[in-house]
Amino acid sequence: MGRLGRGAGRDAARHVAVLPVRREEPVSKGVARSTAEPQGFSRWWLRGHSLLVFIFFYAPIVVLFIFSFNDSNAVGNWKGFTFGWYEAFLDNDNVQKSIWVSVKVCLFSTVIAVVLGTASALALERFRWWGQKAFDAVLYLPIIIPDVTMAVMMLVFFGETAEWFNVIPGVDLSSGLEKLVFSHVAFNISFVSVVVRARLANLDASMEEAAADLYANRWQAFRRVTLPQIMPGVIGGALLAITISLDDVVVSSFVAAVGATPISVYVFGMLRKGVSPLVNSVSVVMLTASISLVLASLVFSRATGSGREER
Questions:
Q1: Residue 304: pLDDT band by 50, 70, 90 thresholds?
Q2: Could you tell me the domains of the chain?
């Protein structure tokens, strides 16, 4: 299933987030980037090193996929090919309930995080106001702090403010689903903001100024000029938020309640009883969903980029 916590995507975004967002500076005249291919020993060493890294990353995924079809209860004992574990996965009511919980949490938390993350990115990139640096630093805390710390913070927060949240119509923290949604929103806002702000940093502000010269108000300029150009970043941030939300274990295990267990926490509980082909089949399904989201993001980005070049 990959590492616990918010997954490898979280680690990659963490390294991106701690860097200041800045616009690209033109390369000085007379400075050229070398495109020469390594020769001799360096060439073979680089290829061998790349191959080892590739095997290190993807060999476990191949093994996981193969043994999810193993016709044996023992993971390391291959007895033949079967689809029985995927049939057991589809017939397992607890797994189906956990998947449905994860789907609802991912969708609700992503929608809220995209709206708030995009708004925060616009506020940080397009305006200058008192307390901006402090807000910028606090916004990225969920990316930097450990998962366990974030989980304890959310647990204490909901314990102290449950009565306030229950005043909101339709919100009942005792069910556990709302706590999962709010917790995932808390850390997904940062990731969405990072992606959208990077897109805004490379956006030509003169187009917004031209819209203002044509008597467009701020909302019209945003809807007709800014939003279409940052949409790849918004979609990318949404897909990243869904992936991180689907992969989260630590925070979800702290705030989840009985009857509202996401699939990642459920699979982690299954691992305590030992690794079985059923766990492998569930993990393959989750991995396929994550890869599909990444591919969808890449296809959308390429389609948007090619369309912009044609125009």
A1: low
A2: 7-17+93-310 (1.10.3720.10)
